[in-house]
Amino acid sequence: MAGWVTGWHSVDVIEPSLVCGGxxxxxxxxxxxxxxxxxxQGGSPxxxxxxxxxxxxxxxxxxHTRLDVSFGKGENNWKNYDAKPLQERLRKxxxxxxxxxxxxxxxxxxxxxxxxxxVLKVCRFSDDFRYRMVYPxxxxxxxxxxxxxxxxAGVIARVFLDxxxxxxxxxxxxxxxxxxxxxxFDDLASFYEKMKxxxxxxxxxxxxxxxxxxxxxxxGGKVRLTxxxxxxxxxxxxxQLGGQYPIxxxxxxxxxxxxxxxxKSVSMAWAEAGLAEGQEKVMEYDEVIMCxxxxxxxxxxxxxxxxxxxxxxxxVKYFYDLTITxxxxxxxxxxxxxxDKAIYFIKxxxxxxxxxxxxxxxxxxxxxxxxxxxAGQRIYQTIYLDKDRSELWTANDLDSSKVIDRAWWSAFxxxxxxxxxxxxxxxxxxxxxxxxxxxxxxxFNTHDIAISSGLAVAHRLxxxxxxxxxxxxxxxxxTVLGAGHLRWRRKSAS
Length: 494
Known about the structure:
3-stranded antiparallel beta sheet, alpha+beta, 19% strand, 7-stranded mixed beta sheet
């Protein structure tokens, strides 16, 4: 984003993957090579207005889809579109929760630093209400997975009561009792490739794909980056833990032949850049924008990190999750309540109810896949959360012949500690020794926050904010600029 809006400067983009977009990634499936987004999918319209505006600039439109969710299974199943016995049984607690939410929202200056689990226990909510209703819903909102009980209470209240963030309206009887409209992104790889070509055309930006930064030196008023070839297994924003996965798979993308073809593509990119495995080069800059996870930034800074950089970057906690894209309808029916209407599924592990796994039907969500659904085909994605709790995962119950793709993700969690030790202090490290930071970890884990964070750095470096006419987009940008930089937008520069 920063490279796009500062196009009149000389900008280099160093990207370990062979395509731009990071976790907004796409693979091609089947004989028709249909694009399947297997990372970022979409979100609520009010909180993704910068993304919508950016796509509009490059001639793309988002699609609209319903958000029907099935939580749990059997006697613990409940839905946002069909009243279930669990909701009837917990109706009294649901009404109490509404009153508590209002107080949490009013006292946000304190509750943002409190875990939702502590608040619910103090208010004497039952285990069933916490584990079967609140925590699965919070996991849906934030993708926080198995850290859900530690999510900030103030943030949870906001996603119910702040209209710019709300996905669902709180229902006093059933907690949820509506089907909201979500947005779904089309082929994200093509979108970012189109953006890349547009940026390259102005001759002020150069992309260095298939390369990663090994270390950085910020002495002498400049920033020098030591760059090397990225790992051949790199994709979806990570090194894929060396390409090792805990489940066998029979899909074409999981074959040795596919891995060999991917490695060949990476080697060709290295050759074009004049690099080979083990070779390095040094690149010098006036300013550097770190659009990467906080733990990666901390590693690259090494001993050269300042006090606040060490404090803030080390306080962002990451967890490895595994995503499996598959066509195993029988697996989905065994582990979820599948009724041909729900497109999201949240499973609570009975043996450890504070832990969850998430899934959804891609062919009902992504616009480019709906023709497959009409033809009777189904593609699902199941997300297994927190590698350290992998003994709970049900991935081995999948039919390996129906596994299309496997991917590791490094994701941070929105625990109350994130809003205590990270968010309030990010501004202290912006611009220190000509180094700037962008990414969703500055605030919330959404695609729009990530985009806004790049626009905010560009704004600090002199570029105008491009979407000032869109009040919702500008509100998100202003929040990111204020929280991440302790600055206000120059109104004349919109």
